[in-house]
Specification:
mainly beta, six-stranded mixed β-sheet
Length: 357
């Protein structure tokens, strides 16, 4: 939606401080599964109602995000070499940066989406972060905070633990842990003034067992048809079930499980339509232990040739956000971003890859 472009463009116009630009179980099929039935939630059917509620009290132009400084430091030649050795044939490294800001509110990036020609992220403190891109590189940043349906800012971990993000036509869909739910915000029409519109309450149980508050809907995706899929991070046995939002404001399990590598949990997913007409699902998994540190597996198809594993000595961190785009030549550009948990001991890393599905 073009009105939100102005909100993000204000971030892109900033004078950013930019310096040049596993083993485990078999992966499940990446083909997007059929929809459940006619009771499914669909973006196009719900968009008008979402816009009316989210911007009911807004007037005039969208409220801009607040500009913050951004230092985007590219990976060194040695770091790029180490990473490139992990790339399968048909995959290319398209850019990598460590992001920093003087603003202490910058960080915790948990979900990622392409919003027009820029990147939009959510934080696990209920924040929005807009990253302006110039020539495919992060050049600026702006932030805002999510408002509830009552117009007040979300507060406390139970309310504001935003994890998954999907975007279409100016509407941002966000999934939350702690209080398992999906809410929508019409950023395209009213920017930072957008209020949350409840889309669905998500299941608190799987296989007749309660889900831990910190193991909920990390992953969220809009299919090309506009259905909303969600994926839970991982239960005690490292199972990550996939569900679908229904039009009645509930979520239901599809019977499908994510293809978690052994010891990894699902943290993000996205779906795109390839030039062939096939709908392709891309998934992101993470693992951590004190000996091996943070590890990541990015999957864009079936088989070893369509997955990438990031682990030491590659520069890596707690990657949680994923956004996919189809390029004019049929390749996919895949963006991933790490959540530094607002800790000085961790990094906010933004990587881009171009792959052939």
């Amino acid at each position: 939606m073009k009105r939100f472009t102005a909100v993000l463009a204000s971030a892109a116009a900033l004078t950013g401080l930019v310096t040049c630009a596993a083993s485990g179980a078999p992966f499940a099929s990446s083909a997007v599964q059929p929809l459940l039935n006619d009771s499914s939630f669909f973006h196009d059917a719900a968009a008008t109602g979402i816009r009316a509620q989210s911007c009911a009290d807004a007037s005039g132009e969208p409220v801009s995000f607040s500009k913050v400084s951004l230092a985007a430091t590219p990976l060194t030649a040695a770091q790029i070499t180490a990473l490139s050795k992990r790339l399968p044939a048909g995959a290319d490294f398209a850019g990598g940066w460590e992001l920093n800001s003087d603003d202490p509110n910058f960080g915790g990036l948990s979900g990622l989406a392409l919003a027009e020609d820029n990147l939009l992220a959510v934080t696990d403190a209920g924040g929005w972060v807009a990253l302006g891109l110039i020539d495919g590189a992060p050049a600026s940043a702006a932030i805002a905070y999510m408002k509830g349906a009552d117009g007040r800012f979300l507060s406390g971990k139970t309310e504001n633990d935003a994890e998954g993000l999907a975007w279409r036509d100016g509407i941002a869909f966000v999934s939350y842990e702690r209080d398992f739910r999906v809410e929508a915000f019409d950023l395209g029409s009213c920017g930072a003034a957008a209020r949350a519109v409840r889309v669905a309450a998500l299941p608190g149980e799987f296989a007749a067992k309660p889900v831990d508050a910190n193991s909920g809907p990390e992953a969220l995706a809009l299919t090309p048809e506009g259905a909303l899929l969600f994926g839970y991070e991982g239960l005690a046995d490292a199972t990550s079930p996939i569900g679908q939002v229904l039009a009645d404001g509930t979520g239901r399990w599809t019977g499908r499980l994510a293809g978690n590598p052994k010891g990894f949990a699902l943290v993000a997913m996205d779906t795109v339509r390839l030039p062939s007409g096939e709908d392709r699902e891309i998934t992101l998994y993470r693992a951590f232990d004190p000996i091996r540190g943070a590890r990541t597996v990015l999957v864009w198809g079936d088989g070893e040739a369509q997955r990438l594993t990031l682990s030491r000595p590659v520069l890596t961190d707690n990657f949680e956000g994923l956004a996919a785009d189809v390029l004019p030549d049929g390749r996919l550009r895949l963006w991933i971003v790490s959540d530094n948990n607002f800790s000085k001991l961790q990094r906010t890393l933004l990587y881009a890859f171009e792959v052939r599905p």
